[in-house]
Amino acid sequence: MERGRLLTPENRQLLVLIRDRKPQSVAELVALTGRAQPNLTRTLAKLVAAGFITMKSVGRRKTPRVLVKKIVVEINPYSDTDRLRVARRSALPDDQGRRDRDRAAAALRRRAELVRRTEAPAAGEVEARVPIVMV
């Protein structure tokens, strides 16, 4: 799924809930959102794959934590130097935060490569390569 399509108003509200309420489990997040558990779990997996959140294991529970602070897209219509910058939160402990940031950066690079190889531009669209820069 393209990152932009993943940031629907519902998913942005979900990110806000995770950031502000800091649910201690997926079950708690289900109660906060009113969304069906399978639907929410699928959405959380997509947010993890995109590098927006991480799921921390606490005993038998999985606790979602937001990794991104801000996403900035810079488009240069005159060259192929477009960039996607993701500002990361630093609220995680150093070791855990570093591992999560490394995993998220690797996921973003894999996703960008997959998108570059598999998505052909639709009629009237121009294909652009977007290097990903982690800040």
Give me some keywords for this one.
135 residues; two-stranded antiparallel ribbon; 47% helix; 21% strand
Task: Give the SSE map.
Layout: H1 3-6, H2 9-21, H3 26-33, H4 37-49, E1 53-58, E2 61-66, E3 68-74, E4 83-88, H5 94-118, E5 132-134
Parallel strand pairs: 4-5
Antiparallel strand pairs: 1-2, 3-4
Relative helix content: 40-55%
The number of helical segments is: 5
Main-sheet strand order equals 3-4-5
Shape by Cα distribution: globular
Mean pLDDT across the residues is: 77
User: Largest sheet at a glance?
Assistant: 3 strands, mixed
Say how many strands there are.
5
Oligomer: single chain
Rg from alpha-carbon coordinates: 16 Å
Question: What string, H for helix and E for strand, traces the elements in order?
Answer: HHHHEEEEHE
Strand residue percentage? 15-25%
Describe this structure in words.
With 135 residues, this protein is α+β, with helices and mostly antiparallel strands. 47% of the residues lie in helices and 21% in strands. The chain is built from five helices and five strands. The protein is globular.
